[in-house]
């Protein structure tokens, strides 16, 4: 258990992405099967231990210590697994076996455990481990590692470990079985790529590159098709035999949040599209497609109520058809897939599926105009696809482009700065900024409207850091309050993708993807934007389709 | 006499009416008895200060020679009389010069222990258990989650990390008085002979420890020598925790951020601070030591000063020992 416990401890304390990947690669290299496979499953959250549930932890610990003292401890630490691992009374006579149990022994014991013998098995194990080991063991069945490693990052580490492309791993992932011995054998070059007979697997997604100026001339109607880029989440729907799956673009199975959609997936094939909320058949734009914040109501839910499915129905606006029946279409040119897609979608429930319309354009200038003035507020730009393009995982150059609307900008005043992490831990690099409004007595005050921690260069970071240190008026732990009055303050030009009304923020607005686009050392603080400016933008733009109601 | 007539709280701090003195007052007073030199306990501006000679020296180093009008040394273990109240200073094992203050009158004995620890520390005298009626205890780490591991092993982990990453600098955050010198001394005892670099704010206190016979080996200021590019590779640098947020920390290439503190027992705490190598090493007692000490004093009543009072009060209740929090304000525990 020690190597796995140490891995978790080190991952928690390693802020950098590359550092985490290195730790994982080293672990995969140094750890034998099946331990490394179980560790991988624990990290990607593919390990399900039905016989041991978090509930028994609390019962076990309060049999061993005062409940009030445990309550104080839990309040302080904030994480059940960590609290129990720290307060677990170590037996006076060490019952520790002469050696550390291996991860696979622990996992296999857990997997064989029934609900009735769960407490006894867990007690025996916790008595044999030290506090790090207890933490790791508890994390195995409570889920939610809180180690800052996503399933995607773990797969990237696997790719690096085996010098493979991550899309290959994503593609086979849902067909693999614990403890992944065939996967590791392939990654180590000892065996062929694992063959899978499983149905409804994820197909790695084709992505677009951002359109840059040198590409402008290439965009001619003869070679490229254009369609709107909708502001939902990219999904892949796969139905094969009895299996139906909704995958995110990174291959996570998210179907449990969308039983209404799964039920409507009455087809054989796989569709690439955008998940949106609304009533696609409605002639009223606002009814047809809801905002991203409407969609957020449906994301990351374990269970979803009938009421919510009625008030926020989801549908898929299809972009592409990857397979039909048993036929893989990915090698076909886009135009041909598109033709098949049109016929395919026409056979499905129109309240759950429609097709992403193509946009006719005569030249680049016209496309630019369309991009800047889209017909619906939930459009965030245009997608441009080469007629001849095959469906290839990743971001192949020159095939698909995304061309977003220019971001909105606002001039805001720096209010608070917080120290960063890792390399930035001695820099004030996370900024809360505000815009002007009037208080009850008609005085100008700043109200925070967002936080940004990127968009500036290293040189600019140094300048802002110096400004923060020189103009600090108060401190709260790692946060400094910066002088910000109409007479004196640093104006930051903030770029953002959209505004949402928000009851959680004092200002009533929330920004999407805010970042610092320019430092306005030249601009007097009093001339920064006002909350009224922002609210006007909310009304004019994204606010149009503010809520979706049942049609 | 009733214990609460012998000592009770006032806004300035813990006050003894018959003896007319305060213990560790947070505001300037006429007569102050000081347990140890940490800034929240030892403040400048009192008229008369009674403390151990080392604590008085430390106060003079930190605040200047004129930190009070009149200094009086309390020789360890000798009983003094202050207006009919008997006062004895006994070692507390917290930092160099730290003492518990035993206050006695008419057969009632109260021990104000200040901050204390029970672990062996090569830089100060060990804690002495003094039997008493009322024991006044700190509660910095008074939660069952705080069980400090073996200190030597924590230091060994630091030495091992230096060996594993010889190209990186290990920057250790440690409180400038006590913790820093203890870490350095234990590194020496653990076999680390190379020069150790220290932050400028620690120089005088380290010099003082050396003058008191504690050998810290070769210490160098952590200043940049432009001619020597890789001077900090493989080196250990010790600085106050606050310096890590400062521009000072930027001079070390690819540093391993270490922090020597009892708080490092909690993973998310270490993570929030951006610590890569947490060293669980404290100058305060952990949960088990607080509980054991209360039993050993044989006291019938416990008063709890600063920290997680509610948990320690709860534990005392479960043991059938009378306990209450003192609600003193002005003491910090975050910088431990």
Automatic annotation (TrEMBL), chain A:
Protein keywords: ATP-binding, Cell cycle, Cell division, DNA damage, DNA recombination, DNA repair, DNA replication, Ligase, Magnesium, Metal-binding, Nucleotide-binding
Catalytic reaction(s) noted: ATP + (deoxyribonucleotide)n-3'-hydroxyl + 5'-phospho-(deoxyribonucleotide)m = (deoxyribonucleotide)n+m + AMP + diphosphate
Matching InterPro entries: ATP-dep_DNA_ligase, ATP_dep_DNA_lig_pp_1105_fam, DNA_ligase_ATP-dep_C, DNA_ligase_ATP-dep_cent, DNA_ligase_ATP-dep_CS, DNA_ligase_N_sf, NA-bd_OB-fold
Pfam families, per the entry: DNA_ligase_A_C (PF04679), DNA_ligase_A_M (PF01068)
GO molecular function, one term: DNA ligase (ATP) activity
Segments forming domain ATP-dependent DNA ligase family profile: 307-437
One GO term of the biological process aspect: DNA repair
Known EC number: 6.5.1.1
PROSITE patterns: DNA_LIGASE_A1, DNA_LIGASE_A3
Name of the protein in its database record: DNA ligase (ATP)
From TrEMBL, chain B:
Keyword vocabulary terms for this entry: Ligase
Domain of life: Bacteria
InterPro entries according to UniProt: MBL (IPR050698), RibonucZ/Hydroxyglut_hydro (IPR036866), Xnuc_lig_assoc (IPR026360)
GO molecular function terms attached to this record: ligase activity; RNA endonuclease activity
NCBIfam families the record matches: Xnuc_lig_assoc
PANTHER family for this protein: BLL1145 PROTEIN, CLEAVAGE AND POLYADENYLATION SPECIFICITY FACTOR FAMILY MEMBER
Protein name: DNA ligase-associated DEXH box helicase
């Amino acid at each position: 258990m020690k190597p796995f416990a140490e891995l978790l401890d080190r991952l928690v304390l390693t802020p950098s992405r590359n550092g985490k990947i290195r730790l994982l690669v080293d672990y995969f290299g140094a750890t034998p099967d099946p331990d490394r496979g179980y560790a991988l499953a624990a990290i990607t959250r593919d390990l399900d231990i039905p016989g041991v549930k978090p509930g028994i932890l609390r019962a076990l610990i309060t049999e061993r210590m005062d409940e009030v003292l445990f309550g104080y401890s839990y309040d302080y630490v904030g994480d059940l697994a960590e609290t129990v691992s720290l307060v677990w009374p170590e037996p006076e006579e060490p019952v520790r076996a002469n050696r550390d149990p291996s991860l696979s022994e622990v996992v296999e014991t857990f997997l064989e455990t029934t609900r009735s013998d769960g407490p006894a098995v867990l007690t025996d194990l916790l008595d044999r481990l030290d506090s790090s080991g207890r933490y790791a063991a508890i994390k195995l069945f409570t889920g939610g590692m809180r180690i800052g490693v996503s399933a995607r990052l773990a797969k990237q580490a696997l790719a690096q470990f085996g010098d493979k492309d991550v899309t290959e791993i994503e593609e086979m992932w849902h067909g693999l079985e614990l403890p992944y011995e065939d996967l590791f054998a392939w990654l180590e070059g000892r065996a062929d790529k694992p063959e899978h007979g499983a149905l409804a697997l994820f197909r790695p997604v084709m992505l677009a590159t951002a359109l840059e100026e040198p590409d402008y001339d290439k965009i001619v109607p003869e070679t490229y098709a254009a369609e709107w880029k909708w502001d939902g989440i990219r999904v892949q729907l796969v139905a094969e035999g009895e299996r139906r799956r909704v995958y995110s673009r990174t291959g996570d199975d998210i179907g449990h949040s969308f039983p209404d959609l799964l039920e409507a997936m009455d087809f054989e094939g796989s569709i690439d599209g955008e998940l949106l909320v609304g009533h696609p058949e409605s002639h009223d734009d606002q009814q047809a497609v809801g905002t991203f914040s409407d969609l957020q109501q449906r994301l990351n839910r374990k269970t979803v109520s009938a009421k919510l499915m009625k008030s926020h129905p989801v549908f898929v606006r299809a972009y592409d058809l990857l397979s039909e029946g048993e036929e893989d279409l990915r090698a076909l040119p886009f135009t041909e897939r598109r033709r098949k897609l049109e016929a395919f979608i026409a056979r499905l429930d129109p309240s759950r599926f429609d097709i992403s319309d193509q946009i006719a354009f005569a030249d680049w200038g016209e496309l630019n105009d369309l991009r800047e003035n889209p017909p619906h507020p939930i459009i965030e730009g245009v997608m441009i696809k080469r007629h001849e393009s095959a469906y290839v995982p990743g971001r192949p150059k020159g095939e698909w482009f995304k061309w977003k609307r220019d971001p909105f900008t606002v001039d805001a005043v720096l209010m608070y700065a917080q120290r960063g992490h890792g390399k930035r831990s001695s820099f004030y690099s996370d900024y809360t900024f505000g815009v002007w409004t009037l208080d009850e007595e008609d005085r100008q005050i700043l109200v925070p409207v967002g936080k940004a921690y990127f968009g500036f260069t290293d040189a600019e970071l140094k300048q802002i850091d110096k400004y923060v240190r020189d103009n600090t008026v108060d401190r709260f732990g790692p946060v400094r309050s910066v002088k910000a009055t109409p007479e004196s303050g640093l104006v930051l030009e903030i770029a953002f993708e959209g505004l949402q009304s928000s009851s959680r923020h004092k200002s009533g607005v929330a920004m999407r993807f805010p970042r610092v686009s320019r430092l306005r050392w030249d601009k007097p603080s009093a001339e920064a934007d006002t909350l009224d400016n922002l609210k006007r933008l909310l009304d004019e733009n994204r606010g149009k389709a503010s809520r979706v109601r049942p049609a | 006499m009733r214990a609460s007539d012998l000592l009770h709280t006032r806004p300035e701090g813990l006050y003894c009416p018959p003896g007319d003195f305060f213990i560790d007052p947070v505001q300037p007073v006429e007569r102050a008895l000081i347990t140890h030199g940490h800034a929240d306990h030892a403040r400048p501006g009192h008229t008369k200060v009674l403390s151990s000679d080392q604590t008085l020296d430390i106060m003079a180093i930190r605040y200047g020679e004129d930190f009070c009008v009149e200094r009086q040394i309390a020789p360890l273990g000798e009983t003094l009389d202050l207006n009919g109240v008997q006062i004895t200073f006994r070692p507390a094992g917290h930092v160099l010069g730290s003492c518990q203050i035993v206050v006695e009158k008419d057969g009632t004995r109260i021990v104000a222990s200040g901050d204390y620890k029970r672990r062996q520390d090569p830089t100060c005298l060990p804690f002495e258990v003094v039997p008493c009626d009322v024991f006044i205890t700190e509660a910095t780490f008074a939660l069952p989650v705080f069980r400090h591991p073996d200190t030597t092993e924590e230091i060994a982990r630091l030495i091992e990390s230096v060996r594993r990453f010889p190209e990186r600098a290990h920057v250790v955050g440690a409180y400038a008085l006590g913790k820093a010198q203890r870490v350095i001394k234990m590194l020496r005892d653990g076999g680390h002979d190379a020069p150790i670099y220290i932050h400028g704010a620690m120089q005088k206190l380290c010099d003082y420890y050396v003058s008191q016979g504690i050998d810290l080996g070769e210490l160098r200021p952590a200043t940049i020598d432009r001619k020597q590019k890789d001077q900090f590779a493989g080196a250990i640098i010790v600085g106050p925790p606050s310096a890590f947020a400062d521009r000072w920390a930027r001079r070390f290439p690819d540093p391993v951020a270490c922090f020597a503190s009892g708080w490092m027992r909690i993973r998310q705490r270490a993570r929030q601070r951006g610590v890569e190598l947490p060293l669980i090493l404290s100058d305060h007692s952990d949960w088990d030591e607080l509980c054991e000490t209360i039993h050993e004093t044989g006291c019938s009543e416990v008063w709890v000063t600063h920290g997680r009072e509610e948990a320690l009060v709860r534990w005392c209740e479960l043991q059938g020992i009378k306990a209450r929090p003192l609600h003193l304000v002005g003491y910090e525990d975050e910088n431990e």
